[in-house]
Amino acid sequence: VVVLDTGLVASTAADGSFEFKGMPPGEYGLQASGAGFATHAVDSLVVSEGNTSEVVFRLEPIPLREVVVTSSVSVLREEPVSTVALDRQQITELPHFGDDFFRAIAVLPGTSGGDISAQFSVRGGLANETMVRMDGMELFEPYHLKDFQGVFSIFDPEMIGSVDLVPGGFSAEYGDRMAGVLDMTSRRPSQVHGSIGISFTNAWANTGGTFADGKGRWLGSVRRGYLDIILNMVSDDDDDDQPPDPRYWDTFAMVGYDPSARHSLSLQVLASDDDLFFEEDEPDEYVDVNTGYGNQYLWLRHQAVVGGSSFANSSVYGGRVSVNRDFIGYDLFDPDEYINLYDDRDVDLYGIRSDWEHELSRRQYLRWGFELRSYDARYDYEMDSVIEDPIDDPRFEPGTRRSSFHDNYTGEWYSAYLSDRIRLGSRITAELGVRYDNLTLTEEDYFSPRFNLLFNVGSTGVLRFGWGQFYQSQRPYELEVQFDETEYYPAQRAEHFTVGYETDLGRKYTLKADAYLRDVDDPIVRWETLFDPFHPAPELATDLVRLAPISATAHGIEVYLARRGGGKFDWWLSYVYSSIEDELDEGVGTPRFVDQPHAFTASASWRPGPKWTLTGVWVYHTGWPTTSVWAGYVERPDGSWELTYDVGPFYQERLDDYMRLDVRASRTSRVGRKGSLTLFIDVQNITNRENLRGFAIADPEWTQDPGGNWYITFPEEYWLPIIPSFGVSWQF
Hints:
Strand content: over 45%
Largest sheet: 22 strands, antiparallel, barrel
Radius of gyration: 27 Å
Number of strands: 46
Structural class: mainly beta
Distance between the termini: 20 Å
């Protein structure tokens, strides 16, 4: 539902209701459209101060052959696969530091993430096990400030129309990732609009609109982060060291044109760039860091209604992901300790993808498609370092490390899928699918059967079952040359079992419950910094370990209760019981570092008046796993003393439980006939709770107990303290 000439858009809830809150008094035009239905418009709706105005749309279904490509084919619309969906209003209202909606996603049921990184885990999977797509284009490592595991994503939330998170058991059209899918759709402008704004971390400008009597449309956005300016402002003028100088920007542009009601074309560009400069000149050491990262994507998409019963969505694309890192460091008092790191790599990719839907009858339709992708990855890597090696344990990498790798890899990925969705009677919808993938780099091919079943329980309940096999390859750009990994591993294989139930309880209440089991055979070898997972250069860390699981298992139960569209007050609650373990030794389960057996989330939005919105999100979960460690001095045979460490089994202890409360308040005022001004304040961890993140193992301290005995402890490290941010945006 669109409020004409304002840019306001809402999606209907499960019961068909919709609501716009905080609209200034005036006369408005509204337009409603749905996939497979004729558009319905209301020319004049009067909104008065303090009152609620109601409008009812009755959409008439139209024959499939007349559906224009701007609305996807509406056949068997109930998806057998369970998803978590966010519309623009929900994305905007959730607290998200840095105006980055990826941080809002990390509080949804089945996801987890830390305070520093915008990357998130889906049901215990690693970050690279979740596929990220925008308008059908898969995006690789779409984050800013990757030296810190990706502090922000590269997406302007103003460009996003909707987000669907599929946390497992996804259909055959998705391949080569095995945990989840984040599928984003860009906005579709209905009239000319623009926006400029500034927040605590970045400034932006965007625009959109239509031309050629509505046949053409455009979107454009550019953002520039200015953490470099803030860090320079707050730095100590008396300090000779220069603060870190991170600079980053991103841009998105789309131009589309519909030559007829049956065809639509669009050309889209997404690009980002990062640079980080840091120099530290202390009396005892010197460090110089210079890094850069880039993402560029270009894709041309064609959508068409073919005949009277088929819909096609095809695209041709190209992209580049690049990395450049330079680290220099040495100890002025000990010339035998030094760091020299040079890392220059990039990958070019090109491909074509085509997805088809064909209606066989009103009860059955087929989906099929294929994708051909070519990679060209280049590696130029040199590392020579001698660092302090305090942990004398064969499980840790030695302090002297040298690596050199220079090579190019090319490879192709060919894939195809077919699925058949059929309605069996009035209550059951089944989807049987299979996909085929071929990887030339490792000379592998495999089939992935998948099955999903939906059963309508009464008039409001839906029961879902899912099973499938999912493969994930190690792509050419994912070779861990920094850890002396020079050969690609075979694709990992995961088997998913899912069951879920959701129902409309009436009076705006919905209930959703899911259970899942994911078994992974032969997980890929991975490297972790055991005590600090956010080291900017893991290959230089003293706590670097190599983990080679035999298998991995994730299972859990998720319960979600929500009340939406209830006027001034909306809320939702979720509880998740889950487990993710790697089998590092035969028969011994080791919790993964993101394992959190119990997780509670509560969110509430209050709109006290037409201009104000206040939203809070409370997050609690069991503390993440850690590893026990003891340190003490041992006398050598020559009478000297040596600091030694005794490290226990990996990840068998837990940090303290984690809890955080975030709030976001916004105020929107009408400016002129069409414009509006929005001010927001966002406070992360408003209670300033100290959430334990780990321990500084490399910096032990002497501590004295009340009895006068001395012992060694490790300084505690915490997640982020209270962080207020703010912003202002002018929409016109």
